[in-house]
């Protein structure tokens, strides 16, 4: 079993519970023998510049309180992300201590993916609008390397879109709300 926590950058840096749980992480009665913390760092928290939200340069600096290694990785490079996550999992497994993966990325459409980020972050979002989405970048790389071809890529996208569309259609037909399986997880046998 491996403990994994997912965080947003502003929450990781700004919520006291993160700091408190780091201090609990090595206590005999509370330890998980190391947690892999994955921070989705979109670089602006909600809509606030980091320099107005915290005193340290990185949102992950709070992990320094327990000398946890912090790996900063470009989230636009899926293979680098997988590599770093494997290193983090090996670290945790070997040393039984917390480790942090800082996925340095951006939100394409601002906070909640619905607001207009140009109001508070105009320079950053001018740059983001010029960026190709990570899926497109990675697909182009794999196609150029001959790992997949364009029709295979388009077929995979179509399969995924079909799964989403079918799930959406089924959700409209749901008449009974089944809550029990959300409240407990009975294990057969």
UniProtKB/TrEMBL annotation:
Keyword field: Calcium, Glycolysis, Magnesium, Mitochondrion, Nucleus, Oxidoreductase, Thiamine pyrophosphate, Transit peptide
| EC top class named in words | oxidoreductase
Q: Name one Pfam family in it.
A: E1_dh
Q: Which GO terms describe its biological process?
A: glycolytic process; tricarboxylic acid cycle
Annotated Dehydrogenase E1 component domain ranges read 2-179
Does Magnesium count among this protein's keywords? yes
InterPro entries named among the record's database cross-references: 2oxoglutarate_DH_E1 (IPR011603), DH_E1 (IPR001017), THDP-binding (IPR029061)
Which catalysed reactions does the entry list for this protein? Answer: N(6)-[(R)-lipoyl]-L-lysyl-[protein] + 2-oxoglutarate + H(+) = N(6)-[(R)-S(8)-succinyldihydrolipoyl]-L-lysyl-[protein] + CO2
Question: Its Enzyme Commission number?
Answer: 1.2.4.2
UniProt cross-references to SUPFAM superfamilies, sorted A to Z: Thiamin diphosphate-binding fold (THDP-binding)
Which coarse location class applies to the principal site listed for this UniProt protein?
A: mitochondrion
Q: Where does the record place it?
A: Mitochondrion; Nucleus
Give one GO molecular function term: thiamine pyrophosphate binding
Gene Ontology CC terms, in alphabetical order: mitochondrion; nucleus; oxoglutarate dehydrogenase complex
Record's superkingdom? Eukaryota
- Which prosthetic group or cofactor does it need? Mg(2+); thiamine diphosphate
Family per similarity comment: Belongs to the alpha-ketoglutarate dehydrogenase family.
| PANTHER family assigned | 2-OXOGLUTARATE DEHYDROGENASE (PTHR23152), 2-OXOGLUTARATE DEHYDROGENASE COMPLEX COMPONENT E1 (PTHR23152:SF7)
Q: What is this protein called?
A: oxoglutarate dehydrogenase (succinyl-transferring)
């Amino acid at each position: 079993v491996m403990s994994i926590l997912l965080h947003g950058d502003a929450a990781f840096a700004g919520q006291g519970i993160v700091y408190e749980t780091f201090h609990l992480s090595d206590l005999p009665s509370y330890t998980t023998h190391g947690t892999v913390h994955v921070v989705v760092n979109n670089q602006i928290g909600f809509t606030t510049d980091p320099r107005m939200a915290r005193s340290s340069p990185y949102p992950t600096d709070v992990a320094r309180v327990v000398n946890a290694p912090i790996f900063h990785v470009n989230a636009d490079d899926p293979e680098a992300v997988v590599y770093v996550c494997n290193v983090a999992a090996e670290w945790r497994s070997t040393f039984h201590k917390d480790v942090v993966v800082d996925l340095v990325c951006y939100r394409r459409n601002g906070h909640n993916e619905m607001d207009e980020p140009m109001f508070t972050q105009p320079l950053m979002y001018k740059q983001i609008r010029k960026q190709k989405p990570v899926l497109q970048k990675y697909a182009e790389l794999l196609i150029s390397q001959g790992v997949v071809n364009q029709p295979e890529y388009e077929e995979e996208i179509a399969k995924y879109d079909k799964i989403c569309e079918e799930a959406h259609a089924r959700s409209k037909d749901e008449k009974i709300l089944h809550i029990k399986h959300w409240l407990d997880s009975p294990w057969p046998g």
